[in-house]
Automatic annotation (TrEMBL):
Keyword field: Hydrolase
Gene3D superfamilies reported in the protein's UniProt record: HAD superfamily/HAD-like
Keyword Hydrolase listed: yes
Pfam families the UniProt entry points to: Hydrolase
Stated name of the protein: HAD-IA family hydrolase
Native source organism of the sequence: Kribbella sandramycini
MF (Gene Ontology): hydrolase activity
InterPro entries, per database record: HAD-like_sf, HAD-SF_hydro_IA, HAD_sf
Source lineage: Bacteria, Bacillati, Actinomycetota, Actinomycetes, Propionibacteriales
């Protein structure tokens, strides 16, 4: 029986309006896609709590000839998060129904701190599982076993919702029920997925 919900953030609870490519293009230009894929790869250790992303971003900007300070670009893009109100309403409704509702997200520490405070996620969720704090990132099954330990619940009583198939597969490999969903699919789809696990 599902007693807890674990929600991913980006694509499920929150959005970057226009997407990453559109947000970065004014700064990087025609090489935006190349730059982003390179900086995302460089960010991977920071998602597991190893190091500070801002100097890595600064080095990438220098490599691509971008003169905008890294901190300025980071604030303009990485922190330009819009909370999806319909998703937040689902969180509140689940809590009113007696479920534990938790956050499970891959973030380096700067963006994670912004989400905790500026977006109010510390107050919204019962337990928050940020990859940089756990020391391991999705889709590694250890992320999900550690999340279950933090939630203090059997892993098979936690339903995970994420927009990426590889993360869903990682959760299932750890023994956690999981479904793939993003906000563009609509909330009737989400409610049907929850109902399939006995969650109302």
């Amino acid at each position: 029986m599902i007693r807890h919900l674990l929600f991913d953030a980006d694509g499920v609870l929150q959005d970057l309006p226009g997407g990453w490519y559109a947000a970065i293009e004014p700064y990087v230009g025609a090489r935006t896609r190349e730059f982003l894929h390179e900086t995302w790869k460089a960010e991977l250790p920071m998602l597991a709590g190893d190091g500070d992303y801002l100097p890595v971003l600064a080095a990438g900007l220098r490599k691509y000839g971008v003169t905008t300070p890294a901190a300025e670009l980071y604030d303009a893009v990485w922190k330009r998060i819009v909370v999806i109100e319909e998703s937040i309403e689902v969180v509140h409704a689940l809590r009113r129904s007696g479920y534990g509702v938790h956050l499970g997200t891959n973030q380096e520490h700067r963006r994670g701190a912004h989400m905790r405070t500026a977006l109010g996620y510390d107050d919204l969720f019962d337990v928050s599982c940020y990859s940089h704090e756990l020391g391991v990132a999705k889709p590694d099954p250890q992320f999900f076993t550690q999340a279950a330990d933090r939630i203090s619940a059997p892993i098979d009583e936690i339903l995970f919702i994420d927009d990426r198939s590889r993360n869903v597969e990682g959760a299932r490999a750890a023994g956690m029920p999981a479904e793939q969903w993003d906000f563009t699919q609509g909330y009737d789809v989400l409610r049907a997925l929850l109902a399939g696990h006995g969650v109302s």
